[in-house]
Amino acid sequence: MKKKLDMNKKQEVRLLKKFTKGIGVYGAEITIKGFSGYLCELLIIAYGSFTNLITQAANKWHPPVVLDIENHYGGNVKEIIKKFPHSAMIVIDPVDKLRNVAAAVSHRSLVTFISACRCFLKHPSINFFYPKPRKISLERDLKRHGSIIAIVFSHEPQIEDILYPQLERLARSITNKLIEYGFSPIRWSAFSDYKKLSTIFIELESETIPPVHVHMGPQFVTGTHELSFIRKNLQLNYFLWIDEDGRWKSIRKRKFVKVTDALKEILKLEEIIPRSLRKILIEKPKVIGIDEIKRQEKLRKLLIDFITPKEFWIEECINENPSE
Known about the structure:
Layout: H1 7-22, H2 37-47, H3 50-60, E1 65-67, H4 77-83, E2 89-93, E3 96-100, H5 107-122, H6 138-142, E4 147-154, H7 160-180, E5 185-192, E6 197-204, E7 212-219, H8 223-235, E8 239-242, E9 247-253, H9 259-266, H10 275-280, E10 286-288, H11 290-295, H12 297-307, H13 313-318
Parallel strand pairs: 1-2
Antiparallel strand pairs: 2-3, 4-6, 4-10, 5-6, 7-9, 8-9
């Protein structure tokens, strides 16, 4: 690095680091999954300057991005992708061909960087490096959202790199189970102070759903499955019929109509909460609705974070007179 980075390039590295910090993708830690300092240095070495890098990223990058500065793999991109199959970005370490320097970069962080680069080229602004504080009116901005529920965990002090992946895994398991019960989760986010409190926010299209739904049965050509479907639905006293598409269907009652009831049941399932997370819980997780979230100061602050758009440059892109 001492040989490759002269004073001019070091300045370019600083510029890139500030840019990635501004858009929220600087840092390889588990909560960010972004660009490490070493990765920023290698990108400047590869592209020569900050301007050239963001121009190439804006116009030519798409996942997976592959970069082999020292040509360890002789330009064989397929071999590199095969070597690192689950990476959104692959930057081969110049001193270790078996290491992907960009392994921490998530698909979201990569796309975020590309999007910000595109906007910056159209409307350069100091805000990309020094973002202005976002002004949020909680009551006003909540009107743009669906139903928001919080799941709060009280636990013993934990290490960030250990706890956060468990919270992510739990959030995915919960949302998958909600889908199974007929709800429509929009997005989720996990927060933690890593001392005693963690929270998962889940936003849904609605916190209540209709009491019945249509269950799809087999086509008439599958005789065995047809009889099984008819028998099961008649035993459960469900209404069933052959629809216009020639398929058996039945009207079934949902197990849960309210998301709060569904979540309380889901959190009782032994396989839902990771074993290592169960061991550190001080009390059972609490399911909290939006009214209670707004009343609790800590949860209210986290809620504001949850509903605050991170992609601030969308406003820069439509601003005709961006600040320089």
